[in-house]
Amino acid sequence: HAGGVGTHLGSLGEGTPLLLRRCGRVDPGSLEAYVEHGGYRGLRRALQLGPEATLAEVEASGLVGRGGAAFPTARKWASAAREPAPRYVVCNADESEPGSFKDRVLMEQDPFAVLEGLTLAALAVGAERGFIYVRGEYPESHRSLLRAAEQARAAGFLGERILESGFSFDVELRQGAGAYVCGEETALFNSIEGLRGEPRARPPYPAQVGLFGRPTVINNVETLAAVPAILERGGGWYASLGSGRSRGTKLLSVSGHVVRAGVYEVAFGTPLRTILEDLAGGVPGGGAVQAVLCGGAAGTFLGPDQLDTPLSLEALQAVGGTVGSGSLVVLDETVDLWAVVERIARFFRDESCGQCVPCRVGTQRQLEVVSAVRRAGGPVDDQALAMLNDLAQVMRDASICGLGQLAPNAVQSSLRLLGRSGGDERG
Ligand code: SF4
């Protein structure tokens, strides 16, 4: 993981930098500096507007979740708000997708924005308590948020009667212990409750039965960090950025064979090639791209012929890919692609919580087929292809949670690049 001090930051396109506007420029350890640079204007306006109008601004913005599933944020908030109190809000800061490090930059370089976003979510849904679940391998992110919460509390931005309004809200931090599956929202609830980090079957959904069995809103760090600006400048303004269902700006974690690995913010619609070449500096030494893993281990491989695709939910879906959490891992022509595929297959085998058969057995069988092909020196013969396609179908159709459902994505999408066609390339 890159993402700490020294990570390249950059932005491109209308409305940017928005999420990164303070990162690297404003002291993340100072509440005064945050307020001086626009901080808590969104919350002040929301307190005047009230919960319903706050929710309406988020709805007008068209904001969708940035953790991977792209679910409309306002719809999630509205369904929790309809349920009886007490309700909870949770920030999913368990950024564990391989290749993703953008949430870390936000937590360490603009922690008050994450707190303000969570406070706005609490105001909109009528929650008095919130949790931030931080990846265990991110101790500096945890420290940064803890420091920020203490300052915010001391200054009346958290706690009883925030800014002398009738609204009270406070937040607690929790640290994970290294399990990828705890980024899955219901496994995360179990982990906070002191239970095994195993996903729950759905329905019921978190908005009805979430943390401690209560209605819960859970959002990714980047989603919440976008909310203060939406309240400050208006949902309509935010919706004017981007295209189609893809509104606003998106953070990307770019790594692998690029000159400047880093976190970049772009307006939706920017072509992948522009991001890789203009922001990340292209492949070092003028080498050629063999593949780009888009969306992390749970994402899909795109080939060099697909790099003119614009970064948007619709455009990536049309080529069998996904924005996912917004990571781009660039592999040049020197890379043994099948070795990377085997590594990803092993990752899913290791990280499966083992609760359901399609994932527990499917990830193991998938790894065995990929390893056998690699040992034999390839190619993927018809028998191996049929087995991989069958496994993919079963894992997608019958796994309880996203880990098992997405485990075949990288393997399936690599088959196209290797000249074989996967059974289902929907990603
Ligand atoms: Fe566990 Fe995998 Fe089933 Fe998810 S899909 S519940 S990780 S076994």
The largest sheet, given as strand count, sense and whether it forms a barrel, is:
6 strands, mixed
SS-derived structural category: alpha/beta
Small ligands present: iron/sulfur cluster
Distance, first to last CA: 24 Å
What is the subunit organization of this protein? Answer: single chain
Element string (H = helix, E = strand): EHHHHEHHEHEHEHHEEEEHEEHEHHHHH
Q: Count all strands and give the number.
A: 12
Mean pLDDT: 95
Fraction of residues in helices?
40-55%
| Low-pLDDT segments | none
Compute the CA-based radius of gyration: 21 Å
Query: What's the total helix number?
Result: 17
Shape: globular
Percent of residues in beta strands: 5-15%
Please explain how this structure is put together.
It is built from 17 helices and 12 strands. The protein is of the alpha/beta class. It has helices at 31-36, 41-49, 51-61, 73-81, 102-109, 111-125, 139-154, 185-192, 221-233, 235-239, 272-279, 313-318, 337-351, 357-375, 382-398, 402-406, 409-417, and strands at 8-12, 88-93, 129-134, 170-175, 216-220, 242-243, 246-247, 249-256, 262-267, 289-294, 300-302, 327-332. The chain is globular and about 70 Å long. The longest helix has 19 residues, at 357-375. The two termini are 24 Å apart. The strands form 3 sheets. The chain has a 6-stranded mixed beta sheet. Strands 4-3-2-5 form a 4-stranded parallel beta sheet, with helices on both faces. It has a two-stranded antiparallel sheet with strand order 6-7. It binds iron/sulfur cluster. Iron/sulfur cluster is lined by residues 181, 199, 352-356, 359-360, 399-401, 403-404. Iron/sulfur cluster (SF4) is lined by residues 181, 199, 352-356, 359-360, 399-401, 403-404.
